[in-house]
Every structure is written in structure tokens, then in C-alpha cells.
Fold Claudin-23.
Amino acid sequence: HLSSMRTPTAMIVGLVLCPCGLLLTFTGTVAPNWRQVSHISDQPIDFVLEQGIWDMCSEQRSSHDRLCGQADELGYFEQVPVRVAQGMMPTSLAFTLLGLAVAALGVRCWQKEPRHLVAGVAGLVLFISGLLSLVPASWYTHELWTLPAPAGGTLVAGYSLVLSYLGSCLEILGGLALTLSFHHCCKE
């Protein structure tokens, strides 16, 4: 009968949310836009500085002239929240890839029964990967207005930071969904 062939809903949820989370945290990690600084003194009104965890780009909005690799004169990259993000975001991505590999082994859609213990372990790894990216995103957000910025600038959170947040939350939820597989082990 079909019921034993079905993959549990929680596993499907985990396997949908976590790759989406990976995509968002990857974009958040590599795109240089954790914070935007606009209305900087001695700069044109449409000049925007975008600060990421690896790079800084400036853009003239009217002409779309964009220059990356801007010099870090204020020691922005030396700041602890930025350094922590540089370490934890790639670590989180590695954990997510590991968790998804383990999840693929555990869920095993091509076999009659999923391996609940393996899927549960994958869920824990993915949950941890979500926390590993949530911590730097939260800390950076908390310090957003205290990190060094050009004089007179208006600071706002950039899309990379928002994507990192969303990705982290999807990984945490997806990981939790997969950890529900432990419930099956206990029943057995």
C-alpha cells in the first residue's frame, strides 16, 4: 500500500525550507550590502556606500556608476561584529551543505522507509547552521548604528543582512522540522 511509501510531511518541509535558507544566506554572505550609508557629507546627494562583510561598494544612483573594493579608511572590517560574520557565515554555509547531504541520506525518497535517526541528525545540523548565521546577522543589526561610517551618513540595513536573517530563520525552521524525525525513533 502507498502509506509506507510516503515521505513524512515534516521531512518534506525541512527539505524545502533548508535549500531556500541556504540560497538566502549564501547571497547574504557574498553580496556586499549588509548596510547602506547615504547622505554622506562632501558627497553628491545620490551617492550611496554599501558595506558588506567582505567588500565595500559605492554607487552613484543617477548614473549607476558602481565601484567595489573601496578603501576601508575607518577600520570597518576590523570591527568585531564584521569579523565574527566573516567567520560564522561561511561556517554556517558549510554546516548547511553538510546537513542537506545527511538529510538526503536520511529521507531517502527512493526507498520504502526513511531513516528517521539520520534525518533527525540532519535536522540538528541544519538547526545549528541556522543559528550560526542568525548570530552574526543579529549582532551586526544590533551594532548597525555604532559601526564606523563616513561623517553625516544615514544608515540603513542592506538587503544582504535581511536575506541572511530570512535564510537563518528558514534553516532553523527546516532543521526543527527534520528533528521531528527523532519522534519516530522513540516510537520504534
